[in-house]
Amino acid sequence: MSKLFQTGLKVINIGMKSFKKTLEKQHVESVQVDWRPPMAIGDIAASIIRANTGKIEAANAEAVNKILNSKPFIEGMGKALDVIPGMKKKMLLHAGPPVPWQKMCGPMRGAIIGALIYERMTDSPERAEHIAASGEIEFSPCHAHSAVGPMAGIVSPSMPVFMLKDDQNGNKAYCTMNEGLGKVLRYGAFDSDVIARLDWMEKILAPSLMRAIEKTGRIDLKNIIAQALQMGDEVHNRNRAATSLLYRTLAPAVILTSDNSEVAASVLEFINKNDHFFLNLSMGASKLSLDAARDIAYSSIVVAMARNGTEFGIQTAGTGDQWFTGPSPVPDALFFTGYSKDDANPDIGDSSITETAGLGGFAIASSPAIVQFVGGSTQDAINYSLKMYEITAAENNIYKIPYLDFRGTPTGIDLLKIAEKNILPFIDTGVAHKEAGIGQIGAGVLSAPAEPFIRAIAGLAEKIQPQKEH
Amino acid sequence: MKKIGFIRKGEYHDSISLMLIAKQISGLPGVADSAVVIGSKENKEVIASAGLMTQELIPAGESDLVVALKLDDGIDSDKMIAEIEAIFRSKNKAGSGTGLPQSISGALDLLPDATLALISVAGRYAGDLAMRSLQRGLNVMLFSDNVPVDKEIELKKFAAERNLFVMGPDCGTAIINGVPLAFANEVSRGDIGIVAASGTGLQEASCLISNSGFGISQAIGTGGRDVKKEVGGIMFIEGMKALASDARTSVILLISKPPAAEVLEKIISLARQIDKPVIGLFLGAPPELMTGGNVRRASTLEEAAQLAISCSKERTVSRPADPGTDDHLEVEPALAPGQKYLRGLYSGGTFCDEAQLICNDSLDEIYSNTPFGSSRMLKHSWKSEKHTILDMGDDEFTVGKPHPMIDYSTRNKRIIAEADDPETAVILLDIVLGYGANPDPLADIVPAIISVRGIAEREKRRIPLVCSVTGTDKDPQNRTAVVSALRSHGVIVMRSNAAACRKAIQIITRRSISHV
Question: Contact A16/B110, CB-based, under 8 Å?
């Protein structure tokens, strides 16, 4: 204590902010800790985790290493039924954790109706609905088939998909081509324009891109993303720079491999008009990196965050294929004129895989423009990213944020840090109208809900030390 | 009247923010009663006994926030809920993405040579945070209460071994290197050092000393439980040692309720080894205690301050202006025949104890919700009996409601209730100023004073209000301004709590408010 009398008072204030204000008035150097109580995870789970800290930390180090060293490439394109593992003729893949038809939200149902029409199973939406509800169609999460899809995320057998590969780890992933904005399938639209566009993408766009990629050779996605981050993208809600870089890579090859300059132009114009064309690829690249870390026993690193518009689900490295879910929240959004929170669908899409990989909301300090769009200030953007360092295991080796002195993005979400500090992953996202087919009605931010993470910790503890049945 | 309740899952606010939210909600038109609390088992029981429990609230847990309301008839519940959601949203907005560290290690990254952690989070988490702070070499001031005693012992033993200090748990006040910490006053620097197991006691003593032109070298809080048997006075002793070796301290003042016998022995034997005058105020301790040699005994905070001053080596050059005692009173019999009783309504627990002690000598049958000395337990805390002296900062008055040192609404209601009671002869109060206390005490209490005057006029009786104001002119509220305003409203303001008690007793026994 005597030392305190001599060396002077410098205070860390944990708790009531009014005490810090007093210290400031007294010109005492002090820092406020924005403390929150840890999440309540249950005593049994807590003691199991405590008893295995060493093993968990070692497993996490291994998982993070795999994520950071992944090398995602576009290898080519193919038909979903031909190349996606486990795909069937009467199967439709969707975003998020498993969900039955009865529980699906408006946009997802609309997208399924549209997919069935696109597959020529029927030309009537009413009939499509009937087929979907009948049990004739098997619904399965994209994630269960090494795939990811934005918004409703519907992948049907005839759809062309990008074929991606992690050169380091050898695993593969798949994603469709992004249709563009407005009335599109992924927002649940299914009118003739939507179907016509899907047909064009299958018959014209895909073959053209396939030939172009054969010509250019495999395309380094990590490289594009790293550059895009330095150009103001976070590759979830803002993909303009990444799309431009992809366009530059592909354009000459598209032209050279086409025998019809109008077709070549229409292909390039399609990409040019869609600022989010790269989104599906940034999602695919993220999935590849995270899949490399799957099935590492004891690891508490999150390998997937995904929403189906009804539930928000996560998977971790140490808990296999198990989904841990909770209700999907409605984002706190800035709505386009004429729309309000009452119109909004709960959070939907596999696109939160970008945050899971240290991009999107985690890299938002690289994208001040998007923060403005969601109603914040540049300082908000920086603070959001900074906060995410508290819940991640590492800083990215390749994806760097210029404004933070080229600090690597927060990568490798650790379940246990989330619980200890009661900080949830920050996601910035588009918001869909809750009715099928209307489209995007706003953009906003949200924290992932707590429930899936609390359940996942219990799941991990149970996996480490199964409790006997009573 | 209808009851509604809802849970806000996983939501957290620090206790002050929660109080402010609660205050805002209780002020909404149409809200007859309300509670905004953490969904702990104890709080749910309190809500139930307040008649506010509803089905929806039963599943609430410790990390949830519970809002329970009683609405007037004809109030639209949905509209009310929407209004309340808006209040919460506006409070939450501020906290998102603030960029502040969220942990001790995060804080140390920003302030690597920090020397003290000031912890005021909920008790069940505070202990671990305190231990982590000690492990990082920080002294700790533990404002939080509800920290288990075995945790307190673990912390203090750990700290003592490393020459670190743990002030608390339940330590609301300290003044280190002239800096008021948590709920403390801005006092002059001088050569009187204090070790106190009572926050309000520390405040009163330090203010009386400062207002007399003397000053405080260091004022160390130990929390109320330190001098009990289990903790054994670990930090009280460490504090004494630190002041003994502090060059700036010439007098050591000890303030507490009576320690456990074995702890008191340790304190006295250490005191005798110290080559400085030691003054002990152990409220309610028998007179034979602690005398002889360098050790002197006081029986009130006022006396303790006076003895400390008399031992100070400083000669003051200027004394701060002292608004003084009340001498301007009318000379006339004042009380109606039925007015018999003293009603003390205290925000500081130690003042409540001191008041009981002083009043026990002169008044029979004193009741309290926290009986001290020979006082009896009040059967229903919300209904005064005979002479009643209340600690309104006690848990039963403060669950889901702001502490009376910060917000006077609960006490104001009680002041008016006592004024309404024809048997009330005098109402006795403490007003505590300083950092953390009510920022605008006058705005909060003057309406109640005016109401009391209204009752007095209507009922044609005098209802004297007697109080002391603990604070200094350097406090944000400015003591002189507060005292002057109170007196202009007819309140009798005395120099100390002890003086206020004596004045109140005088009024009752002489049945007049004349000054003798």
Answer: no
* Contact by Cβ (8 Å): A75, A163: yes
- Range 421-440 of A in CB contact (< 8 A) with B: 421-423, 426
Interchain CB contact of B133 with A (< 8 Å): yes
Q: Can you state the angle between helices A43-51 and A451-464, rounded to 10 degrees? A: 60
Residue A38 has what pLDDT?
83
At B50, give phi and psi (nearest 5°). -85, 0
Tokens for B272, please give them.
């005798």
DSSP reduced 3-state for B246: coil
Give CA separation, A41 vs A38, A456, B198, in Å: 9, 10, 36
Q: Find which of A11, A427, A428 to mutate to test the B interface (most B CBs within 10 Å of its CB).
A: A11
Please name the residues between 83 and 122 in chain A that touch chain B, using a CB distance below 8 Å: none
Q: Of A277, A305, A343, whose CA–CA distance to A427 is shortest?
A: A305
- Tell me which residues of chain B have a pLDDT lower than 70: 10, 15-17, 90-99, 289-292, 316-333, 512-516
Q: Residue A200: which residues within 8 A CB-CB, separation 6 or more?
A: none
Sequence-separated (6 or more) residues with CB below 8 Å from residue A69 = A168, A169, A292
- The residues, any chain, with a CB within 8 Å of residue B469's CB and separated by 6 or more, are B431, B433, B479, B482, B483, B486, B493
Which residues does A388 contact at the CB level (< 8 Å), separation at least 6? Answer: A361, A362, A410, A423, A425, A426
Query: What are the tens digits of pLDDT across the range A334-374?
Result: 787 788 888 999 999 999 999 999 999 999 999 987 777 66
Q: What is the pLDDT of residue B95?
A: 40
Helical spans, DSSP H, in B99-188:
104-110, 123-135, 149-161
Best of A3, A4, A382, A407 to disrupt the B interface (most B CBs within 10 Å) is: A4
- Nearest CA-CA partner of B389 in B425, B345, B326, B427: B345
Q: Cis omega (within 30 of 0) on the bond before B169?
A: yes
Question: What is the DSSP annotation of B4-65?
Answer: EEEEETT----HHHHHHHHHHHHTSTTEEEEEEEE--HHHHHHHHHTT---GGGTT--TTSE
d(CA A78, CA A161): 6
Q: What is the dihedral of CA A453, A72, A407, A401, to 10 degrees?
A: -100
Q: Which residues contact A298 (CB under 8 A, 6 or more apart)?
A: A52, A55, A56, A58, A59, A318, A464
* pLDDT < 70 positions in chain A: 1, 373-375, 469-470
Q: Say how many C-beta atoms besides its own lie within 10 A of residue A436's C-beta.
A: 24
A12 and B133 in contact by Cβ < 8 A?
A: yes
- Spatial distance between the Cα atoms of A9 and A15, rounded to a whole number of angstroms: 18
CB A459 within 8 A of CB A322: yes
User: What pLDDT does B82 receive?
Assistant: 86
Q: At what angle do helices B409-420 and B441-459 cross, to 10 degrees?
A: 10
pLDDT at B321: 53
Q: Show the tokens assigned to A52.
A: 């295995």
Strands (E), A257-406: 302-308, 311-316, 324-327, 332-335, 348-349, 392-401
- List the alpha helices (DSSP H) in A135-205: 192-200
**Total beta-carbon pairs less than 8 A apart between chain A and chain B:** 161
Cα angle at A102 between A101 and A105, to 5 degrees?
80
